[in-house]
Amino acid sequence: MPRLRRIAGLVALAAGPVLVLGVFFVLPVSGMLGLGLWPDGRLDLEPAWEAITRERTARVAWFTLGAAASATVITLLLGIPAAYALYRLAIPGRRMLRAILLVPFVLPTVVVGVAFDSLLAADGPLGFLGWSDGPPAIITAMVFFNLAVVVRTVGSAWESLDPRPGEAAAALGARGWQAFWVATFPALRGSIVSAASVVFLFCATAFGVVLVLGGMRYATLETEIYLLTVNLFDLQAAAALCLLQFVMVLGLLAVAHRARRGAVAVQRVTARPRPVRVSDLPALLTTLLGVVLVAVPVLALVLTSLRDDGTWSLANYRRLGRSGDPDLPVSVTEALANSLRIALDATWMALLVGLLVAIVVTRRSYSPAERRVRGLLDGFFMLPLGISAVTLGFGFLVTLDEPPLDLRDSPLLVPIAQALVALPLVVRILIPVLAGIDDRQRQAAASLGASPLRATLTVDLAVVSKPLLAAAGMVFAVSLGEFGATSFLSRADHPTLPVLIFRLLGTPGEHHYAMAVAASVLLAATTATVMLITERLRVPGVGGF
Length: 545
Description:
The protein is mainly alpha-helical. It contains 23 helices and two strands. Pfam families: BPD_transp_1.
């Protein structure tokens, strides 16, 4: 009976998130694949097989894997020391530095591609590097985008680790790296693997920066799917590449799940930042390098936005509030208001579903069957991160257009899509924290008469409250800058700011490009402010991060 009750509870808790993902992810993606593989109501795999076996497809797939793997390794090498410095050391202004590192996460990818292209061009400030036309520019831009993922995910777990095991190892003669490897890494392993898997998937599905910096020569599966869907309308080839991308994602999730199984569960505490020592110099220098990597492209955007007809001026910002431009449906400030409303809806949706998923997959398993079910659920809810946002957006259009799911004119359509894009990030942030809770605390609460719900609220909620706040800030940031799916779903008269920026970049006119850059600076400043407020709201003395 207890086993049946546990399985019934697991099914009941997972039913809601599974239904949400089934309706708003599986159905749209299946609809898109159906158009490609069943074009006339019958299965036709020959065009799909021809697309997969093309020489170009092989090049695109290998470049996708190589670029994503390289960017992930570099991001980890920069992000782990930065996480240590910004979450364990008493550095002045560390909360501001965290917010600065998050800014790239919300910049429209197309604008970042333009920024890097101008920086690395032959006549640009960094032209001497010779990276203007090739993989180095793409990989650097990927690191620029994803550094915040490692810093936030690993740093949050590191901040709440008990420092005494590391201090004991040092007292017994272990030197810096040896003490880290023996005492700290086992406790951080889950968060590092989680961050690496998220970064790899973000890099493998990068869109705007690859489109701008790589063009047709250096394409990833994501940009190739976009080209086949939008430009060539070759849905059968696009569906084949979606399946190839799906297989790659499943393989990565299986590897990440196996790596996380060996992670050590530790007691979470509230560790005060300690003073900086001489031995922390390498971590501080690495953090400085990360800040420079983030600051230089952003600074280039700011300087470009302040130039008007060859002079320094605020004219581009004054144009943002005007709605009389015949080429634009709304002003930039109205588009920003649309983005804020949509991001708020996407945030509560992603947090609600993500928290339920994290609770389901981190509860103690009492049998191999339960463990396998939880592992499958964990992988299932990571799938939106590895499926093309182009596929998801196009799938929404072709499947959610008839009763009872006719959402074409619903104001919730875009927030739902953005929440699905951000959902894996919420899950990856919360899982290491919830997995680190000692189950004996819940048992102690139950022995004192607490019901399962009250035990969860008493033990889990106290630990997860701050991670939830951090996850909310990350989801809000992702939603503000999301472009792939939103470009398909955003209504022409209610565009989000990234969609309007993209339209400005493609609209002829003397001031449209400068307005797009100014709008990007406005978007970055808005998100940095939100994240700084999130950091200020964190309550000292509560577990989590």
